[in-house]
Design a protein that fits this description.
The protein is mainly β and 192 residues long. Strands 5, 6, 7, 8 and 9 form a 5-stranded antiparallel sheet that branches. A 4-stranded antiparallel sheet has the order 1-2-3-4, with no helix packed on it. The longest helix is centred in the first third of the chain and has 20 residues. The chain is rod-shaped. It starts with 15 loop residues before the first helix and ends with a strand. The model has no long low-confidence stretch (mean pLDDT 82).
Length: 192
Amino acid sequence: MQSSAVPELAHTHARPIHWVATATAVAGVVALSSVLQPGAATAAPTPGPQTKSAPAPAAPPDPAAVEFPLDCGPVKLVVKKKASGDLDGDGRPETVAVVHCDAPMGTPPDGVYVLTQAAGSDTPRRVATLVDPKDRTNVDDFAVRDGDVTATLLGYSSADVPSCCPDVRESVKWRWENGAFTRSTPAGAESV
């Protein structure tokens, strides 16, 4: 075996003093880094597009806050059905209410009314009568969809038909056109 031409160097063998010196140096760096911290980071907003939140959707008019043109005498008025939607395309909802007098006997006729509420107002008001209770009809199916009011009306073929038993069924639709509600009869009248 050939011996090394270079004598062994003293620093090639780790002694306990080397470990103590290394540990002291690392501890000094850690201690110094905890004292010399950078300042607190602050996030400055960068200029960019500003966004605005959309206005809250308007609440539909409440039928309980409207007076309907029905004389119910000693019984109370009942909102049988209601549905809301934007019928005139102004971005604000209207409510369509089916109402009648709460008669203890018989089949009281229904009235169908359109309610609206002006922007910034708390008071709803009636703006249209789609079915007058004087017509002696009752509303069976009823919906507001895509700007249309649809209903199935139950009526009478003559004044001789008792009010308990309507004998005519008619599907109707109303749509806001040129400042008024236009009624159409998609399916025609049929006997019950």
